[in-house]
User: What shape does this take?
Amino acid sequence: MSGRIDELDSVERARADARSRSTRSEWMPYLPPHTAPFAPADVDPGVLRWAETVAPGGYAHLRVARGTRIRLEDVTGDACAHVLVFNAVEPGERLNVADTQKIPWQAYLGAGHPLLSGDGRVLATIVADTSGHHDAFCGTSSDAWNEQRYGDAHPEGASPSGHALLRLAGAKHGLTVRDLPPAVTLFQGVRVDADGSLAWRGSAGPGASVDLRAELPLIVLVANVPHPLDPRDDYVVGPLRVTAWAERPTDERDDVFALSPERERAYRNTIAYAELAGL
Assistant: This one.
């Protein structure tokens, strides 16, 4: 009997020691509404479902329901969010950057811009944007690029590539390297110059935000790493704040729904798919 008591005492001491050593990090997800240290001022904390600060050189991933609104915020002016979205029901349907530029007849991302799949459906819509500094041309940084620029690309190192982090994030959802298309980049802008070259335009400064609305259940992958065209020699990137809450998907009540025949067709395709699948 004494041996059993000694074992219980040992377990209790180990538990007390582990709890005394527990720490909190600013780079972690929270369980809103009660534990999140931040929340959008214009959002009822009771509907908040995701709150996370993504570290410089870090990544985030989550499945979200149809109609979820996701806000990404550039806290310091140096965040660079490389974003991929997948249909969570059929992950073979994923972001198609070419169609995202082609269907709205606009290569530059901004408020009202749909993010399309190759199946003619809208995966997400940019419903608000105070940055205006984005990129749908370059994709995220590759391992080879980071090794050349910074000497290392490993996700555990000081200068992880965006692709390495997206591979890690995707693996959490059963996705492999072959499943990862080119990403769109938020908060670090690129524009096409008159001679056709791509010019990095940097950020809009601290506090800029972008809101995405999930038009289908989504797998969302985010890597927070420097833009490939960032001319600064050092690996410069700032924290990225992510929050999400329940809303509704886009429908005929929204101005973006019928801005063009191509957009309306894409939204109607999305709604029909969701309703037939009972989503």
Remarks:
- The two ends are 57 Å apart (CA to CA).
- The longest helix spans residues 2-21.
- The mean pLDDT is 91.
- Residues 32 and 48 are 6 Å apart (CA to CA).
